[in-house]
Specification:
The chain has one domain. It contains eleven helices and two strands. The protein has a two-stranded antiparallel sheet with strand order 1-2. The chain has 248 residues and is mainly alpha-helical. Helix content is 67%, strand content 2%. 27% of the residues are buried.
């Protein structure tokens, strides 16, 4: 799970997107700064203490800007990217870099901020999106919100398990929804309407995904689904399922 979390940072640094941040959604200067930090933090050359201190300084400045923006009554899209950014900041601070105890403690305190911001994003999510959005734009925005809330909760659980060796079962996370046709995340504008079908969402919960997997009814799964499955069933269970399917 730690390796998969680090992959979020690597993918954002290299292509500006990952399984919960879509690269085609417009980004601000804040996003450009974050991408540069992700690139630096995953670069082998940044492993020196001097380089890491510089990255931590950049993170502190970035977080300061984010806190200011969060206090200015952000709209849904702004709040979405603030939560997405903070998730990556926390992964870099707690899992990627090997900073001092003081830096780690400071980052740990931000976990509560991530919890608060994620709750705010959840409360801001509308039941309907503007009709002015194309089907693909509406899908990407809605799915970005859903996936971001899921990844935030998953990372908070991961860090708690890493630090305290246990994590409380969270039924709220189990019930979080996402589009069952997860592969739509990678479908370009051309052909999206055809892939999306009748324009209706096919929503499934995290718990339901696990139940389908346990029943052997998942023949393939995307990177996003793999991450959710590994979180609750473990790497070895996923590998065993894939091996069994290949034999069949």
């Amino acid at each position: 799970m730690r390796r998969l979390a680090k992959k979020h940072v690597l993918n954002y640094g290299t292509r500006g997107g990952n399984v919960f941040i879509h690269e085609e959604i417009a980004r601000s200067q804040l996003g450009m700064n974050l991408k540069a930090i992700c690139q630096q933090s995953t670069n082998i050359a940044s492993r020196s203490q001097k380089s890491q201190i510089k990255i931590y300084e950049q993170l502190d400045y970035l977080v300061g800007s984010m806190v200011i923006k969060a206090g200015l009554a952000p709209n849904l899209c702004e709040m979405l990217f603030l939560v997405q950014s903070l998730i990556l900041v926390q992964i870099v601070s707690l899992l990627v870099l090997n900073g001092s105890v003081a830096y780690k403690r400071q980052a740990e305190k931000r976990q509560y901020v991530l919890h608060l911001w994620t709750g705010k994003l959840w409360n801001m999510a509308p039941s309907e999106l503007p009709a002015s959005l194309s089907p693909r734009q509406a899908f990407l925005l809605a799915e970005s919100v859903r996936r971001t809330i899921i990844i935030s909760g998953e990372f908070q659980g991961l860090w708690h398990a890493s630090k305290y060796a246990w994590v409380e079962h969270n039924m709220f996370l189990d019930s979080l929804p996402f589009e069952r046709r997860a592969q739509l995340w990678e479908v370009p504008e051309t052909g999206f309407d055809t892939a999306f079908g009748n324009g209706k969402q096919d929503i499934i919960s995290w718990r339901e995904l696990i139940d389908i997997f346990d029943a052997g009814m998942l023949s393939t799964f995307t990177s996003f689904e793999t991450m959710l499955l590994v979180a609750l069933r473990g790497k070895h269970a996923i590998e065993a399922q894939l091996k069994a399917m290949s034999i069949c």
